[in-house]
Design goal:
It is a single chain. Helices cover 47% and strands 31% of the residues. The protein is an alpha+beta fold. Strands 2-1-8-7-6-5 form a 6-stranded mixed beta sheet. The longest helix is centred in the C-terminal third of the chain and has 35 residues. The termini are far apart. The model has no long low-confidence stretch (mean pLDDT 81).
Length: 231
């Protein structure tokens, strides 16, 4: 970025509302290789190293041994869970001395496996730490300094009630499972009432089988007793 407060809104929309290839290109263009990402339910840490190994056919292993690669996966999975993301940036504040952006935004979270009635409006503040990269380019036979900014860290901050909104979707799943288990229990009870003749038949069949076994065992004992009697 050359002008962070002016460009960050467009970057956020590209990260959350663009096709996969453009989303990945955006992360590679604006995030540092060792950038970190922190969210209430996940984090990446900050790392980047080059083991100097190529993995055919995937290329250099260094492409995967950095935290930016994890950020790509997080954003991709986020887009898969919620293919249609409604998001608006409310305000942007920039601390030029600390190189920190404070972005207030709201979005509507709707997981693809839930009906639209379960869409949740969520508000958050994203704190973005920047790192400057200075380059020099020849211009009019003299060197001119050119500074760009990479995203070094992203920290998504939610109020407690906003986090409960997200987890309420999971609570719906838990409630659905609990209701299914209760239904299955009543179905078992109802089934044993409706199909009681089968149990009666099985009881009779097993009873006759046990009776036959008892008769055989009794006959065997009598035979052994007769054999063991002295002449």
């Amino acid at each position: 970025m050359e002008d962070p407060p002016a460009e960050i809104t467009q970057i956020i929309h590209l990260l959350t509302q663009s096709p996969p290839s453009l989303q990945q290109a955006t992360i590679e263009r604006y995030f540092a290789l060792n950038a970190s990402f922190k969210h209430p339910i996940c984090r990446t840490g900050s790392f980047a190293f080059n083991p100097g190994i190529n993995i055919w056919p995937f290329g250099p292993l260094s492409y995967y041994t950095n935290s930016r690669w994890l950020i790509k996966g997080i954003y991709r999975w986020y887009k898969i869970l919620s293919p249609k993301i409604e998001l608006e940036v409310d305000s942007v504040a920039y601390d030029r001395n600390a190189l920190v952006l404070y972005v207030s935004l709201h979005q509507v979270v709707q997981f693809f496996f839930f009906p639209s009635i379960f869409a949740m409006p969520v508000h958050l503040v994203t704190v973005i730490h920047l790192t400057p990269v200075t380059s020099y380019s020849p211009a009019s036979f003299s060197e001119s300094e050119h500074t760009r900014y990479w995203i070094q860290a992203q920290n998504d901050l939610y109020q407690v009630n906003e986090i409960f909104k997200l987890f309420s979707l999971l609570r719906i799943l838990w409630t659905g499972l609990w209701l299914w288990q209760v239904f299955a229990t009543f179905a078992c009870v109802l089934g044993q009432w409706i199909f009681w003749p089968i149990s009666r038949w099985e009881e009779g069949r097993v009873g006759r089988s046990l009776e036959t076994r008892r008769e055989i065992a009794e006959s065997e004992r009598e035979r052994k007793t007769e054999v063991e009697k002295p002449d």
